[in-house]
Amino acid sequence: MAQPESLAELLNGRRAAVDASLPPIGFVAGYLIGGPALGERGAIWAGTGAAILVALALSAWRLKRGDKPRAVVIGLLGVCVAALIALYTGRAEDFFLIQLFSNAASALAWVVSIVICWPLLGLVVGGVLKQRTRWRRDPALVRAYSRGSWVWVCQYLIRVAVFLPLYQSGRAAELGIARVALSWPLVAACLAVSWWVIQRSLPPGHPGLRHPRDGELLRNEKQGVS
Questions:
Q1: Residue ranges of the domains in the chain?
Q2: Each residue's pLDDT tens digit in the chain (226 positions)?
Q3: For helices 172-181 and 13-64, what crossing angle results, to 10°?
Q4: Alpha-carbon dihedral of residues 158, 159, 164, 170, nearest 10 degrees?
Q5: Transmembrane segments in this chain: where (predicted)?
Q6: In contact, 56 and 40? CB cutoff 8 Å
């Protein structure tokens, strides 16, 4: 029997996390290199310029590989907005302000989705598998996705807990390092742990994520048997 795909394979989490970490690396490199000669304001210009150049090169590479233009444009736009915020405020740490807010908002959104029984992990995986919301008719999958979603909440909260004190202290270089350290390594851990939680939560004999079972049919079968 073929082994089921992991969440990392289904969601292509490794490439997305690596791509997201490259522009911040460019920003920190440009900021640190430009700092001694250009001063704080000039260093911010150097950092934002480097980040945008990296994002443009990455976007061109992704388009060449056949990625969806919409996803590429959104990624590039995010870097440009972060750069504009830092240039407007004149504070290098503000380049990471969007990341701080987005992680806090993501944690809240995932918690709400679990509470209302529409776990975002199910919506994401269901979308990738082209199931739409069929998985919601399977109580076992809803429960498994809800439990797995808590792992993702923890991922976002960890980032907020690390980013917030660094941001408040104005430590832009450390923020860049933290952004990279908490990208692919944390995403990889989140994917692995949430996959383990889902697998442990599914009852024996369940056909897996690709084959949701209709809860109403299951109840009817049990009533017929009894």
A1: 7-221
A2: 344 556 666 666 556 666 778 899 999 999 999 877 778 889 999 999 999 999 999 889 888 887 778 877 888 899 999 999 999 999 999 999 999 999 999 999 999 999 999 999 999 998 888 888 889 999 999 999 999 999 999 999 999 999 999 999 999 999 999 998 898 889 889 999 999 999 999 999 888 888 888 754 445 444 444 4
A3: 100
A4: 140
A5: 42-59, 71-88, 108-129, 180-198
A6: no
Distance CA 48, CA 52 (A): 6
Give me the phi and psi of 100, to 5 degrees please.
-65, -50
C-alpha 114: how far from chain center: 17
Show Cβ contacts of residue 123 under 8 Å, excluding neighbours closer than 6 positions: 113, 133
Assign 205 to helix, strand or coil: coil
Direct distance between the N- and C-terminal alpha carbons of the chain, in angstroms, rounded to an integer: 32
CA–CA separation, 187 and 210 (whole Å): 22
Provide the 10 A C-beta neighbour count for residue 177.
15
CA distance 113 to 77: 27
H-type helices in the chain, by residue range? 7-11, 13-64, 69-89, 97-115, 120-128, 139-168, 172-181, 184-201, 215-225
Given a contact cutoff of 8 angstroms between Cβ atoms, the answer to whether 174 and 118 are in contact is no
